[in-house]
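step: validate -> pass
step: tokenize input -> pass
step: predict -> running
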Amino acid sequence: MMESFLIGAVSSFWLGVLTSISPCPLATNIAAISFIGKNVGQTKRAVLSGILYSLGRMITYLVLAAVIVAGVFSIPMVSIFLQKYINKILGPLLILVGMVLLELLQINLGGYGISERFQQRFQRGGLLSAGLLGMVFALAFCPVSAALFFGSLIPLSLKYQSAVVIPSLYGMGTALPVLIFAFVLTAGAQLVGRVFNKLTEFEYWARRITGVLFICVGIYFCLAYIFRVL
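step: predict -> pass
step: emit ->
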């Protein structure tokens, strides 16, 4: 059981990293940090902005996941149903999320961006506004981040009945790339551009490999728990 939970914990952390480096969140993360820490030459300010922004995102993901998971398990009938059928549900769900990651399935969430005017209001609030902006940006789900959070993290939390540990690791995963860029920003715009290009290339393959793995695991869960042929 402990080994199974460890796999779930590592998976949730990786999902957080993948969420943070997905095209839409990555662009907003860099924009937010550079916007808040306007004077890139001020190393301390840029790094603090990155830390507070990351904490804001982490807290939002943790609270949102914890509320959903705790709410589900507070309803006895739903809790019993999930404990009995969660493995059967995970199979098709993982296949669908894998298809989203491979761009075989398109999800339209409408306008999920944050306007520059909205960012400016937070920027005038100083360093503490970085945390608030992180919270707001965490709620601005794009198709990939929504699929990873609602289609993968929440089911993982439900499977392991973890309203805190699994979501916390996911939040830590989303913070890692953001913190790296906060430090990179202090080195100048040219380095940011190079790191961004490398990370974009890494994300392209990481998302596709994860998508293939999700589909394979989803097929296994379907065969093992739905059709019972394994």
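step: describe -> The first helix runs from residue 2 to 21.
step: cleanup -> pass
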